[in-house]
Specification:
Strand 1 (27-29) and strand 2 (35-37) form a beta hairpin. The chain has helices at 2-21, 62-68, 75-93, 101-108; strands at residues 27-29, 35-37, 57-58, 116-117, 141-144, 150-154, 167-169. The protein is α+β, with helices and mostly antiparallel strands. It has a three-stranded antiparallel sheet with strand order 5-6-7, covered by helices on one side. The protein is elongated, with a radius of gyration of 25 Å. This is Type II secretion system protein GspG C-terminal domain-containing protein. Residues 29-56 are annotated as: Disordered. Residues 45-56 have a biased composition (Polar residues).
């Protein structure tokens, strides 16, 4: 008899624990220690390319794009020019470009839903891999802080990301 009471109590405790934990299985802790609803594993939406029949509209700010690869410009003015191009893209398309360097470069070059090009696809500041490069020839690193804020990082003169000589905007 005592044994059946133990099983009953254990089953009851297990049921209560399951009722408590089951709704929380789809949640993950956030940085603040609370819980936030887990998101399904989906990739970040990528910018759509214009359709084959859609033409690309060139909206070049010559001063900015010339400054990106100017031989007399400094690294700071180049990253500032790139930041301004990203802000222009955001104003024209309603959001910052998404993806890694190559995808962002394509978006700035007109491969986006509106077919708007802020940068020529064959610009000297784009390397053979299709990436925008900094003053020292290293690809920029883009990090979306939010839907409207894009961090742009130059590896700096040591050409290594995340070191003390990096240039970062904003």
């Amino acid at each position: 008899m005592r044994s059946s009471h133990r099983y009953l109590i254990a089953a009851l405790a297990l049921t209560v624990a399951m009722l408590y934990l089951l709704p929380r299985l789809g949640q993950t802790p956030d940085a603040g220690g609370g819980n936030t609803q887990a998101r399904p594993d989906k990739q970040t939406p990528r910018p759509q390319s214009p359709t084959k029949n859609q033409s690309i509209t060139e909206v070049y700010d010559r001063e900015l794009i010339d400054q990106l690869h100017s031989s007399d410009g400094d690294a700071s003015s180049k990253i500032n020019s790139l930041h301004k191009l990203v802000l222009q893209y955001q104003q024209l398309l309603g959001q910052a470009p998404v993806g890694e360097n190559e995808e962002i470069t394509k978006a700035l070059s007109g491969k986006n839903v509106k077919g708007i090009a802020l940068l020529p696809a064959k610009h000297p500041s784009i390397n053979r891999e299709g990436e925008l490069i900094d003053h020292w020839g290293t690809p920029y690193f883009f990090h979306a802080i939010s839907r409207t804020v894009m961090e742009i990082r130059s590896a700096g003169p040591d050409r290594k990301l995340h070191t003390s000589d990096d240039l970062i905007l904003p």
